[in-house]
Amino acid sequence: MTVCGTPAVFILVSIVLMSVTPTSTGHKLTDTEIKHLCSKTNVGGCYKLLKSDPRTTNVDARGLAEVSVDLASNKANKTHSLLNSSVNATHDSRLKNIYKLCSSNYNDAIRDLKAIKNYLHSGAYKNIPSEVKDAYEEIKQCKKVYGRATSDHAHIKKKNQEFELLISIVEVTSDNLNKN
């Protein structure tokens, strides 16, 4: 009876390990390949930003896309919190309205990034570009609300630019999955 149970346990353990393994393509990306992907963002700092995350040392295409989504999500959440704090900190009704509108935009962008993460996990890569586009649109709306930079909200404009960089990285890394 133990002999019959051993192969079943081995198969079960193998299935569990395969489902936990983060590889999708099995091909680990080289630094050259990551640099090539970053060259498609038209923004400096992509490679340095990705390589600053220790998860990129031994990652495949899906793993790199997951890292980029995590980085963008972290930035979006921090900016969203900053906007909400700014709403409560200001007594200027015009600024309060701007912060509220952008906070709503970031909330929607965070939702888009969660959808992207779900698509990455399910392998539905073809659905990712529309969510990336939606996240870009949310930030464009926030930029429109701010208009020209003033000292009152230049820090938010900088956060928007940083988030745009991260979304462009998400776009490039997820587009790479659709090509594989």
Automatic annotation (TrEMBL):
Pfam families: PMEI. Keywords: Disulfide bond, Signal. InterPro entries: Invertase/methylesterase_inhib (IPR035513), PCW_Enzyme_Inhibitor (IPR052421), Pectinesterase_inhib_dom (IPR006501), PMEI_plant (IPR034086). GO terms for molecular function: pectinesterase inhibitor activity. Residues 1-26 form the signal peptide. The keyword Chaperone does not apply. The keyword Hydrolase does not apply. Residues 29-173 form the Pectinesterase inhibitor domain. Coiled coil: none annotated. Belongs to the PMEI family. This is Pectinesterase inhibitor domain-containing protein. It comes from Sesamum alatum. The lineage of its organism: Eukaryota, Viridiplantae, Streptophyta, Embryophyta, Tracheophyta.
